[in-house]
Amino acid sequence: MAASVVKRSVYINDKVFLVTGGAAGVGAAVVRALLAENARHVAFIDVAEREGAALETELLSKFGPLRAKFIKCDVSDEDQLATAYFQVVDKYRRLDGVINNAAVLSDSRHYKRMIDINFTATVSSTLKALEKMGADKGGNGGVIVNISSLLALDLSSHLPVYSATKTAVLQFSIAMGSEEYFAKTQVRVATVCLGPTDTAILNRTNLENFDKDSTAHLTSRVPVRQRVEAAANGVIEVIKSAKSGATWIVANDQPAYDCSGNIAEAYQVLSKTQV
Ligand SMILES: NC(=O)c1ccc[n+]([C@@H]2O[C@H](COP(=O)([O-])OP(=O)(O)OC[C@H]3O[C@@H](n4cnc5c(N)ncnc54)[C@H](O)[C@@H]3O)[C@@H](O)[C@H]2O)c1
């Protein structure tokens, strides 16, 4: 028992993490949970300057000097993202884990920006993290958790672009977490599919996107939203326990669980359609 606790805790205890979209919602809860689990330093990047600065002040007073750092950064801007990674590694001299959590749910006029933030920036940040942490690049290995959604596993017609970005995050992360990559990088890449969670992303304005019916549909279908703390606890469990390439579900305030078997089965069925 004691041995397994020690083994799981090594992934967080005294380690340096970067969380994208960490100023509010699930990201902020993950930042808090990592510090509560004794991460040495947690840097979090976000466009929300006021919320980010306020959270940094709160965390420094609660956990002590240097434990947390807010960096204002738009993840969809390659230069800003590269600068943020440079700042973290320059300040803390190492990087052990990255949670790619930043995302938006915006209306149809802004779909290209949503794809940039939700998918393209997740790819860029994953590749940058592998550059810094990959054993094949001189790093110490580590963990990357990419945040997807239950909508990636659902063929409903609602929120088509948002759902597609989250499906893309899932497939990309499964591929980057494959044995083949892990053997070289020693960086586990895992995906979390979150269920509806009580954050600003689900506010009515965000949900009124492609058709008016989608708001009523989504709010009636998902009356229960889990607490951000439950979502963050699920992400922590994934950091501690997930195998590389795994997909976990964190929903309904329940403990996180590995659904990789179902995903593999689904892809096996899909691959049967090839001639
Ligand atoms: N809340 C839910 O019901 C739910 C369900 C499934 C998946 N998710 C996923 O969980 C993750 C967290 O979402 P949330 O619910 O906490 O939403 P949120 O809106 O509360 O938080 C998202 C954070 O990302 C930041 N952000 C947005 N654009 C950014 C950019 N360009 N650069 C940097 N930061 C940016 C925001 O400022 C905000 O702090 C997202 O990936 C989301 O898709 C959420």
UniProtKB/TrEMBL annotation:
GO biological process annotation, one example: lipid metabolic process
MF terms (GO), sorted A to Z: oxidoreductase activity, acting on the CH-OH group of donors, NAD or NADP as acceptor
Ketoreductase domain segment(s): 15-153
Gene Ontology CC entries for this record: cytoplasm
UniProt cross-references to SUPFAM superfamilies, sorted A to Z: NAD(P)-binding Rossmann-fold domains (SSF51735)
Superkingdom of this protein's organism: Eukaryota
Keywords: Oxidoreductase
Family stated for the protein in its record: Belongs to the short-chain dehydrogenases/reductases (SDR) family.
Protein name, UniProt field: Ketoreductase domain-containing protein
Protein source organism: Manduca sexta (Tobacco hawkmoth)
Phylogenetic lineage: Eukaryota, Metazoa, Ecdysozoa, Arthropoda, Hexapoda
